[in-house]
Amino acid sequence: MLGNPAKYTHTVGTGKAVVFRNGRRIDGTWSRASVNDGTSFTGASGQPIPLSPGGAWIVLVATNAPLT
User: In the chain, what is the greatest distance between 2 CA atoms, to the nearest angstrom?
Assistant: First the structure.
């Protein structure tokens, strides 16, 4: 890893999400039913948040951490 350790986690459940896309902040939720399922992101209106093709960065933060 050349000094850049990566953490791997089996994140299952639901929680708050913030997606940054096309210069915009989209608040919503994430959900993943099991380790065999993909993670979905849903906006405040209940619509899926579309992600752009290609790679994505996912950053996990503590539940009470401010997202400003």
Answer: 42
Q: Is the pTM of this model over 0.90?
A: no
> Is residue 62, in this structure, part of any structural domain at all?
no
Per-residue pLDDT of the chain (68 residues; tens, 9 = 90+): 566 666 667 689 998 888 888 888 899 999 999 989 999 999 999 999 988 888 778 777 777 887 76
Are 11 and 38 in contact by the 8 Å Cβ rule? The answer is: no
Is residue 32 a contact partner of residue 39, using CB atoms and an 8 Å limit?
Answer: yes
The number of distinct structural domains making up the chain is: 1
Q: Give the domain range for residue 5.
A: 1-49
